[in-house]
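Example record for the data management plan.
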Amino acid sequence: MSIERDEKIHFHELGTLISVTRWIRTHDEGVAEWLKNSRRAYQPDRANVAEEHRTAVLLFKDADAKGPARIGLLDVGGATLDDATRWSTWQDPEASGRGSGISEEETQGNGGKAYMVRLFRGLARIVGVKDRRFNSKGFDGPQNTVERGTPGFMPTLAAGRDLPDALWDVELQHALDSYDVKIAELPKELQNAIRKRESFTLVEGVDPIDTYKGRIDAEDLVQKTIRHDQSTLAIQQLRLYAIHNGQMMNSGKPQELEPIRPYPGFESPITYDIPEELPDDNGRMQSTTLGGKRPKGRLILYTSVENMHAAYKKLLPRWKVTYRTQYQMVGSKSVAELVPATPGSYFVFAAVELSAFEPDYVDLGRRRPNDGPLIQAVDKFIAEKIREVAKAINERRRHEQDQEALDEVHDENRKLDNFKNRFLPSDGFAGNGGTGDDGKGHNDIIIDPPPREFGEIPDTIEISWEPAEILRVGKGVALNLSPILRPHVRDTAGRLVPQAELEWCSADRHVIDFERGSHIRAAGKGKTEIWARIPDSLVQSPRITVEVWNVDHVLLTPRTLEIPLGKKKQILAEATNDDGDRATNVFLNWKHDADDQLIVRIHPTGWVTGNRLGRTSITAGAGDPAAGGVWARIWAEVTVVPNPDELKRGGGFPQLKLTERDEDPATGEIRPGNPDQPALWQDPIDYVNNIWWLNLDSPDAAFFFKQRGESSTLWRSFHAQKVVEMVMQVHMQEEFTKLGEAERKDLWGNHKAALERYQVQLSELMWQELQTYVLTGSGLE
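Corresponding structural encoding:
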């Protein structure tokens, strides 16, 4: 095919101008672009500013009788004619490099200009002196016009273009007069640098938009600017001062980000090399080195002792993953976007450095990287590593909580949980001991259930596992044996002894090592025996033979699975060991890659429960892949779909359990708390299991739990109130579930009336007995 081309490519001037400037929306974004440009100008291939002279100052002046407000940045580079000429061209790919060929931060010179054109009503210019030559060029004119975006020398070509014999001190003082600042009032090191170099550059804008009556909130603007992604390198490489209305800010000291104190035990950054190939969302391998043409990248995880999500002003803006190439910032994403609702992630932030991001994944505004297969693959890697560190922090937090206090609260919770049953029909709406017409009890009748008898002196330990059956575990697997072996301690009459303490033992810790309680790690290939016993007694369980496999590969079936919400289905993991033996009863570790980790719950036996609508991929394996661990290469694709059937609540009395202390039957692991969930927490699978959780990581529960040491009464009051609320909600669940399609559409009116009815009926009755407990800690027996 032939073509006769036009003489040149044509763009609509105003449309193009709007397109390349609209991404600048706030002053901190614009000032950050100015800072980035100053840092770049200081490099050896440009102004070649010595390290001791790398400094700059932000200038802010509120509107007054002398003129409108203005914002400026003064540095020591010196604006040359070449700078002004290059600066004048929009979308110049060599704007920052000047054709030097040095692989430094590449820009198109749009950010600073876009800010000057878009967020100022008055003139905006770059002015400076170097080698006794003066240059001044900028923008002026009505907003959203081609005239505004067309640069020109100021005030005229003759008076602003490479004017010779310019005196730096005269021109600088003339520029500073508008800010009510004298040269002698500038930071000393900035004065020294300018005098030594006899050069300066001032970029400034007059009459900034989005200010109230011309007043600039300089403190807030400076803090937002230095937290901005594009300011990162600048803050690291030059000393930045600020002056507002002629007064030095920050007591005359350089501006800097507050240091983030690391989480104890994670004081040093955690660095991971990014593998040369990573799978994207479709399972296709993506090269992170562009086929070996770029260097390998790395991921750096940092931690914070404070909850970054909760520290709205200081830490929340820094709770993110920043993406950069070797020399330039690409953008950022919130940690919450990559690992939403992940306990422990509130204390982690990260930086990823990968040259392969450039140029395809570098967007014009550098707010966030462009989407695509490589970003998808890297994000999966980042999310996996953040989850690992978040899990470690969450486990440490669990241990850091006063274990004695947790045990005491667990005992209190058991008493309150039993107490609440007095205010529910027999068998919790699901038994046959009630007086209702249907034989299942009646919502309005409160029946005291018969007290359950418990034993006190242990005699035997029962285990729900055939002693002749071998328990197989993959090497490197971490596992909680309690939900698998289900030990029960009984007295001589066969009654349960609920508070009996168990100690777990291994005949060979090099094969099976108990890390804490019933949690094991399969340490090495081989066979051994494990058992439980009552400390300082002869009471012990039958011994179980455990065989640790050195897993060679894992195959999952089925490959695709649909699970209705609230239901569970099993994925079989066939493991093959290094001796060629195969089995589907080898315990492995399981994980899935959904952003929302609560979409499914996975039991160590491979049973997957649908907890929230969505899709995820599940795999199983043994050990750390980076240290030789083996996981299934082909993941199982799982979709949680709507359940056409009404979810059925489990029978018996609903249980109130404690996060950080009680096991989740859906996973066999201790249920971690979650700051994004309420104190009284119930997911769909919890409803099916007839369980509620007192979520100790919810903001209100965490607050009251911390006060427990100084005011146990305050904590008991909160705990008791949650139990009362639980009873009300159980009654309301039953009432409105029974209505089904007959429920009227005025939902809030019905629910509010029901809530008030139960508040009158139940709250008074329950609090008559709870008052003594709250005040004294006793009275529920």
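Summary line stored alongside the record: Confidence is low (pLDDT under 50) at residues 431-449.
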